């Protein structure tokens, strides 16, 4: 009986051992199946979060851009108001000498003593000669020959300058509006050109000319030596219109802005990027020359120090 009991106990132990091994193997298999699935879900959720964050960042950038454009339009409007004020002051300054001339032309008032008045009354018995009768008629720069007052159309013309850019361009299509902005830029009126290109980019977001307008907006600020703002506008060209023909030039001018701001390492990095991405472009040729010049200056400065 003892032997039978021992055999039964040994079988039971082996059976329990196999059951435990089976359970552990099944659990490990489930864990190995669930782990990749969970990782894939986590990765997908992370990608969605990153995409949402990028979208929010892009929307915030557009809002900042719109606020910047509004500020440019407001500055243009304030400049027009200031110009009108200066013109009005100049007109009023010109009208003051006219009044002074009238006063200066009038002869000084002649005084007559009391004895003289009595002699005149006794001897001549004629009506007293008043001071007014001796005053000569107003001639020369007097009332009749006074310069005419400024025409009212001066005020109308200056008040028309106050009209916001949106009102000036509301009846123009994108081609005419772009041409006017370019004409202003080519004539050297960079501030007005910047305001008009900025308004163009906001109004015609889907126009085929918008990438060019965005680029020339940066050029307008660059021409005014506002390199910080120019760099922002050139970056917008690269981010919003990467397939534009202006992209190599925008990247090149971004590098120039960095160099003008004494950010030489960043400027050299962008120059190399132009050469790497657009090796056969005119911008790349210019970038090579500029990079050589910057490297030469760096070498000379290091030798001097």
TrEMBL record:
Gene Ontology BP terms: cell division
Compositional bias ranges of the Basic and acidic residues kind: 84-132
Single GO term (MF): transferase activity
Region (Disordered): 84-155
Keywords per UniProt: Transferase
Name by which UniProt lists this protein: TPR repeat containing exported protein Putative periplasmic protein contains a protein prenylyltransferase domain
Source organism: hydrothermal vent metagenome
Taxonomic lineage from the root: unclassified sequences, metagenomes, ecological metagenomes
């Amino acid at each position: 009986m003892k032997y039978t009991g021992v055999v039964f106990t040994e079988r039971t132990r082996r059976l329990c051992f196999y059951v435990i091994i089976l359970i552990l193997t099944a659990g490990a298999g489930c864990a190995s199946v669930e782990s990749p699935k969970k990782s894939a879900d986590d990765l997908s959720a992370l990608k969605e979060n990153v995409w949402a964050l990028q979208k929010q960042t892009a929307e915030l950038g557009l809002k900042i851009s719109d606020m910047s454009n509004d500020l440019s339009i407001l500055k243009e409007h304030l400049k027009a108001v200031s110009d009108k004020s200066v013109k009005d002051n100049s007109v009023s300054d010109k009208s003051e000498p006219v009044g002074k001339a009238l006063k200066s032309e009038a002869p000084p008032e002649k005084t007559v003593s009391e004895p003289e008045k009595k002699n005149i009354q006794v001897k001549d018995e004629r009506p007293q000669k008043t001071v007014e009768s001796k005053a000569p008629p107003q001639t020369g720069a007097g009332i009749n020959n006074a310069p005419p007052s400024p025409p009212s159309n001066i005020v109308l013309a200056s008040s028309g300058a106050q009209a916001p850019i949106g009102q000036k361009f509301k009846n123009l299509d994108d081609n005419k509006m772009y041409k006017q902005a370019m004409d202003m830029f080519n004539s050297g009126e960079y501030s007005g050109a910047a305001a008009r290109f900025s308004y163009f980019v906001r109004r015609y977001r889907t126009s085929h000319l918008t990438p060019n307008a965005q680029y020339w907006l940066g050029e307008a600020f660059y021409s005014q030596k506002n390199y910080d703002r120019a760099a922002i506008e050139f970056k917008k060209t690269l981010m919003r219109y990467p397939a534009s023909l202006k992209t190599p030039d925008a990247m090149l001018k971004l590098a120039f802005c960095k160099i003008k701001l004494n950010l030489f390492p960043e400027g050299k990095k962008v120059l190399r990027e132009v050469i790497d991405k657009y090796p056969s472009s005119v911008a790349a040729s210019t970038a090579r020359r500029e990079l050589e010049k910057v490297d030469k200056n760096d070498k000379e400065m290091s030798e001097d120090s």
